[in-house]
Specification:
Elements: H1 2-24, H2 28-33, E1 35-40, E2 43-49, E3 55-58, E4 67-73, E5 80-85, E6 88-94, E7 99-104, E8 109-110, E9 114-115, E10 125-130, E11 138-150, E12 155-160, E13 172-175, E14 179-192, E15 198-208, H3 209-246
Length: about 250
Amino acid sequence: MKVKIGGVLIVLAVLLGCATSSNLVPDYKQAENSVVILIHNYGMTSGVLISEDGYVLSCAHGGVPQKAYAKQFFDDMEMALITQCEKIEVVFMDKDLDIGIYKITDPRRFAAAKISDKEVKKGEDLFSLGTPLGAPFYLSWGKMIKHLYRADIGIPYILHSCCGNMGNSGGPLFNMDGELVGINVFMYAALPTMAGYVALIDGMLAIRVKDFLPGIEGIIQTHRNLQVSLDELATAQKHIDEIERERPD
């Protein structure tokens, strides 16, 4: 009985959070529709669609995804429905940067996020969407705490106070305009215990998307061009095979 009550409370909290979010964020629905659930051999991570033709930005530490759940538009209707996508391709993975770009192979149109080109300021309101512990499209509010830098590879991060848990990795961080500003990569631990477990979580760290946007766009365009070349090659090979079959012995 306690489990059922707890489940009902979680559902109610998610529904109430979504209802409130639509009033606070003008383009919240577009942000929510862009969230992707990535299924791996040993669990799941989150991601965000950054193009209508199925390119997904996420983390790399989850490994190669086997399939995805994403929202697609059907018959040009302004309504996105959750779809299971069995074919997903790795376009780019860098485990040091913890960035992964993946391509869902499907001809239908996806609901992509808007990407912000603005600097995130200290104290700015933000919200995170993801799949913590398997709860799909879970919403969490927070604030930007400060910028942190990894000196070894020179990556800037956004430290923010949105709640996170296992499954949030790779999920999007949005500003109050519903624009993508970061990709959550790990929780920021302030006080590890003697047993090695985190006793206090200050927030989550997110990679600043705008810093990597030119590189991301370049990788995606290169992949698109390669796909066109492969399609043209396959078409040419098909014509050659047809000519060979029709040639008299």
